[in-house]
Amino acid sequence: MEWIKRNKKNYNWIATFPCDTPFFDENLIEKIKNCPNNSSKRLFFLKSGNRRHNIFGLWSLELKDILLKDINKGHRKVEEWANKVGSEIIEINDESDYNFLNINTKEDLEKAKKKIK
């Protein structure tokens, strides 16, 4: 958000996705891209099953100053901050949950290898 401001880009939204999720379905971007047209919310997260994925999101740049202020006050947990400002959840029906598989451990790597086979 700061980069957009510093570089005088004319963007109103920023999408976030973790880099360690190799099976993320890029078609889901289309699903969240139009959410602001149908909602007054300024923060959207994907959810599959009972799990909200706080890194897979769409953030309005209107949140920049609020976010910076709260970070400076010590707020560090995305989930808690999102609950504070309010977010909308986009349900994803993904029974395998591979879209959101982070590869952080040896067990995660083994699960990813199974997916590839």
Write the layout of secondary structure elements.
Blueprint: H1 2-6, E1 13-16, H2 27-33, E2 43-48, E3 51-60, H3 64-72, H4 78-85, E4 88-92, H5 106-116
Parallel strand pairs: 2-4
Antiparallel strand pairs: 1-3, 2-3
Topology as H/E string?
A: HEHEEHHEH
Low-confidence stretches: none
**What's the arrangement of strands in the largest beta sheet?**
1-3-2-4
Mean pLDDT: 89
How would you describe this structure to a colleague?
By secondary structure, the protein is an alpha+beta fold. The chain has one domain (2-116): Spore Coat Polysaccharide Biosynthesis Protein SpsA, Chain A. Helix content is 34%, strand content 21%. The chain is built from five helices and four strands. The protein has helices at residues 2-6, 27-33, 64-72, 78-85, 106-116, and strands at residues 13-16, 43-48, 51-60, 88-92. A four-stranded mixed beta sheet has the order 1-3-2-4, sandwiched between helices. β2 (43-48) and β3 (51-60) form a beta hairpin.
Key descriptive features of the protein:
about 120 residues; alpha+beta; Spore Coat Polysaccharide Biosynthesis Protein SpsA, Chain A; 5 helices
Summarize the structure.
With 117 residues, this protein is an alpha+beta fold. It is built from 5 helices and 4 strands; from the N terminus they run αβαββααβα.
